[in-house]
Amino acid sequence: MDQNFAVTQRTKLKRIPDRASYDRATAYAILDEGLIGHVGFVDGEDVYVIPMAYARQGDRLLLHGSVASRLAKRLGEGLRISVCVTLLDGMVLARSVFEHSMNYRSVVCLGSAKVIAEQGEKLEALRVLTEHLLPGRWDDARQPNAKELAATTVLALPLQEVTVKSRSGPPDDLEKDKARPHWAGVIPLQLQPGPAQPDALAADTAVPDYVTGYRRSAT
Amino acid sequence: MDQNFAVTQRTKLKRIPDRASYDRATAYAILDEGLIGHVGFVDGEDVYVIPMAYARQGDRLLLHGSVASRLAKRLGEGLRISVCVTLLDGMVLARSVFEHSMNYRSVVCLGSAKVIAEQGEKLEALRVLTEHLLPGRWDDARQPNAKELAATTVLALPLQEVTVKSRSGPPDDLEKDKARPHWAGVIPLQLQPGPAQPDALAADTAVPDYVTGYRRSAT
Question: Do the Cβ atoms of B188 and A186 come within 8 Å?
Fold first, then answer.
């Protein structure tokens, strides 16, 4: 597999190209850290954007939903979709309002998803989804039975047209603004777990290490 | 203004209706806490989803971008768009994999945006955007000049077709799974600020209270 995604008419970024990348490893690191993808699809005359859990499995993105959902139904028809995963890293405060920005890493994936129908492949996809969101959980929970498998639609989107955009570092003030007295810099932001909350029946159950140690980012 | 958004064919939720709401105050609270909206729009035969800063100004949603960007150009043409704001509140661990879920609050807004052309209205919209993201910052930074205003497209999307979806609370295990030994409960998640990082020129500048006290959620 190539190190870089091929740049197509659809994925070519026209503006601020220094914020763009087509590097596969960078894209995969972002996808592997994120929890929620925003999925865009057309239904009738309208475009919808809906949050979904996802996971990367090799060179494809897995999505899943109830077989009853409009989204899973539509996606399974092979229409073109867009999935965007965004990690917000900080607020960037410049001395001028105009140069304010955000530090972030985002991936946009374009393509058509296919339903995973084969039972073994579907079960493995659910394992990957579970382990992406909660590493260690699959083997410490009751795994799906035939009825539950049948009630779930699992979709795979090939990772072929993929764009990374990101910004990092301090603000970029104009020279003429640098003498201004305002504080400037970055307020870092991170999605952080709080203390685990057992349900009523688990109050006396030992909290597993993969729960107490849960974190998303590598830093 | 009605307390509830009117339910249309487009916004009517077909599945798990107990997770849906059309309550205006609930939607506005979510929009006011969020920082990033995922904007979906159609360009040619493709649908794109792109992350954007936004702010709510009364009964409309403000978006902004460079006049050079494809997105701002397309949005200003009045095509139908979808903006989704999602706040992730926690991972929900049930005793069965199937009942795993996420606690979240999300808003989907449908409609067509209009360019704000009038200069006074545009400047006020930029003030609202800045104050939404960084309360207290507008008066403590150099405000946009005519050239910067001209380089920015500001768009307003009327908040008319709006849907709230959310989940909260502990997992919902099946009765037959409740005796299983696995830990079950919620890992709360929250976007949290770290210590502010001054840029090279601001190392000796006092850090303003609105930076040290920066937080998003009300809790």
Answer: no
Q: Which residues contact A145 (CB under 8 A, 6 or more apart)?
A: none
ipTM score for this prediction: 0.94
Provide the token pair at A75. 């996606």
Superfamily of domain A17-173: Electron Transport, Fmn-binding Protein; Chain A (2.30.110.10)
In whole angstroms, what is the distance from residue A71 CA to residue A54 CA?
A: 14
Q: Which of residues 112-151 of B touch A (CB under 8 A)?
A: 126, 130, 133-134, 137-138, 140-144, 148, 151
pLDDT-derived band at B71 (thresholds 50, 70, 90) equals confident
- pTM recorded for the entire structure: 0.94
Report the distance separating Cα A128 and Cα B168, nearest Å.
Answer: 24
> Within an 8 Å CB–CB cutoff, is residue A213 touching chain B?
no
- Could you tell me the CATH superfamily of domain B17-170+193-212? Electron Transport, Fmn-binding Protein; Chain A (2.30.110.10)
**Range A11-38 average pLDDT:** 86
**Candidate from B81, B142, B196 with C-beta closest to A185:** B196
Q: Answer yes or no: do B181 and A205 touch at CB < 8 A.
A: yes
Give residues 67 to 96 of A whose Cβ lies within 8 Å of B.
68-70, 80-84, 86, 88, 91, 93-96
* A214 vs A205: CA distance, rounded Å: 17
User: B64 is written with which tokens?
Assistant: 């902004």
- d(CA B10, CA A44) in angstroms, rounded, equals 10
Q: Which of B63, B60, B62 is nearest to B50 (CA)?
A: B63
Tell me phi and psi for residue A11, to 5 degrees: -105, -5
Per the document, the length of chain B is: 219
Under the banding of pLDDT at 50, 70 and 90, the label for residue B20 is confident
Residue B127: count of CB within 10 angstroms of its CB: 18
